[in-house]
Structures
1.
Amino acid sequence: MDRTNPPPLDGTPPDPCAIALLRGGDRAAVTVAVLALHLRGAVDAGRPGTLRRAGTGDAGAFRHPLEKAVRTGLYRPAGPRELPGRAVVRRALARMRAELVAAGLLRALPPGRTRAARRLLAGLRERHPLPEGPAGPEGLAEREVLLAVALHGERALTALLPRFARDSGLTGRGALADEGLFPFGRGSGIRGITYHGDDSGRDTDHGGSGGGAHGGHHHGGHDFGGGCGGGGFD
């Protein structure tokens, strides 16, 4: 059975959905799952500011339980703010959070990341920086793109897939993305863990509320932007 399994810094490939949840909460994790499905042709932008199932693509190629939940949750189009609240997605996120608590990476009380999680994120950011300059995303494997958005958030998303991010409402006017503002939702306990964070890697473990664009070009059937390449996902 697939499980959330964020690894230690021992060279094991990290789980982008779990890393995104640790960094930016539910919206960040859902964004990574959405992007994974989009890269495989299973999810696309619908009406402005919404996501929808695509008519093509290998919808069965789920590499993480959250991807399956997101695909199922798009039984009708939804905006990025609505999608995490749909029952099947909400349950998948709750399971992820519980597993991260069990792994010692999230605290239920007081809510927030643990010291181990902060070390994990800092180490991953150091090993997978968001490059500056005209490197572009050419040659990046899917996992590298997802990890880039997981670690670096909207900066990576707008650099790598600016058109899809804008058209689907993941970025742009009204999009909070996941800059650590109420990243785990309001509430208490595992279902309502909150912390405040940002893309610089600085964390303060208290509640908050829970987001640069570079020019893009069409690359391999998907919108990859020029300007910044690298790995990270919000």
Note: Residues 7-11, 176-234 have pLDDT under 50 and may be disordered.
2.
Amino acid sequence: MKEGLTWPQPRYVDSIPAVVDDATIRQALDHLGNAQSYRPYHAHAYRMSGWIYLARGDLEQAVAAFERARAINTAEPMIDWETGLVYEQMLATISQAPSTPLTHQLTQAILSAPNVSIATPFCKQGAPQTCYAGMTTLTMPYAGISDPSPFTYDFFFLHPPATARFDISVPVGQEGLSFILGFDPQARAWGSDGAVFRIGVTTTVGTLQYVFEQSVTPEQAGTGWIPGWVDLSPWSDQKVAIIFEILPGTKGDTTADWFGWANVILTSPTAARYASYAPLARMRAAWLDGGFNQNVLLARRDEAIRFGRIEEAQRWEKRALLLNSTVHAEH
């Protein structure tokens, strides 16, 4: 690793290495793989692999390695810090990618739903189908992440069985469809059996092709947001209809199925894939688990200012803001 990687000089705690000899680094990964096979519950080999993958720009492999190291050694705060750095790189990629927000445009989609009224806040008199779709705002944490801080998103409510057909031309370079699945917290105790989320794509001359399907139990959805993404590269620069569909859960019962979609965005496939990791929430969780709270980050900012390192101080300031429970950045 010393021969194959180089570090910025001066090297700071948030410096990212670069590869200078890929053949040597591949040898290092082979050795680390052997170390992991002989000692699968020793964190250091996973941690070193994480640095190599980060240097190579393979952020998903880096996350997997660092998260494995974190799970093995829960008492080493620097592993938490380093894991957060990888998620920070994912966030940078997401923020730099082109994007087209679609959540609010879904209210203009062609709705297909039963002509039977149900009790929701969106019903218009004499139009039962309107009960099945609407726009609202929900606040909750991400599911399965240790940081319980809530994230607020505009939410396209789509009560099953219903579909929303949205016509669009897939922009070149924005073939990644990023989204979040959600379940309205106020309906969690009303007896839902879950839901099935599906996304289909069709052209004017083609047949409907489903590109995403995920079953969600009320227990899973009840813990918070669930991110996802699909790759629309086969339809790049084509006019298509994207079908957003929600079906009832395992029992076929639509009772209390207040499900829907949030943060629906067209972006690059890489950015959409990274967004499915919920990198902001996971970065916050890793750093807070390691004791790197807002006060710690602001102290590092102040230290950088004292030594005249203004760019470094700005990085610490930005991180401290992201750890503020009242600040939640959307893509």
Note: Residues 144 and 256 are 23 Å apart (CA to CA).
3.
Amino acid sequence: MLPANGERGITLRIEHLPTARLPRLVSVTPDDTLKRVKTLFTRHRYAQFPVLTDSSTPAGAVTRKSIMSADMTGRLLTLTSVTEPVKVASIDEEVRKVFPTVGAPRFVLVRDEGGLISGIVTLSDVNKAHQKLSGPYILIGEIESRLREILTHVCPTVDELRSATGRRAVEAPSELTMGDLERAFSSEDCWTRLGWDIDQDVFTGELRVVRRIRNKFAHYHASQLSEAENNQLTEFLGWLEELTPERR
């Protein structure tokens, strides 16, 4: 759900995964021989290949596992006999919807904006992306949580929160975005209530930088924080803890 001002949350989409757009998508056609398929498996060491009738029409997928399972039966094999159905995801779909917690597919083919099959995303790719996401997400979340807690301490009622942020429809601190928080800490009334013996412009300037880093990451203009950005967020969180030692 989007906040009222349109500031988006951190959403991982298929397009953010490196294998969603491959410079060269290795695939086979329904007319290829198993010998060719096995050779490609040996050469590229992938676990699966898409079977494409043409660049935009998938016929399924062939996997190492499907070939090995069929080989063990001693049957005469054809590519068709080891081709499995495959799910195709749009490149702009949310990862959590394509790979739900329960019953997630092992891999999906990806269809780009032009309708072409542009890549193949595996459950392993998704897990790696979530691992990269978790560290910065936790750091950003802790900063937002701390700022909301501080603001709630000096603006305990809904009316006071609305006045400080300029958000008439806000009902709870959890609804406040980083933009809302920045406006609140820029408010003279709110700042006076804080009673901090520091320069307001310096603090709000630092908060503005933090918001920009947060939004850059949240909108996935960057897949992970740079060392400088990570240091900025870590130091800002430490500063908040120094300013509010009674709420540690």
Note: The beta strands are 48-54, 57-63, 83-84, 88-90, 107-111, 117-122.
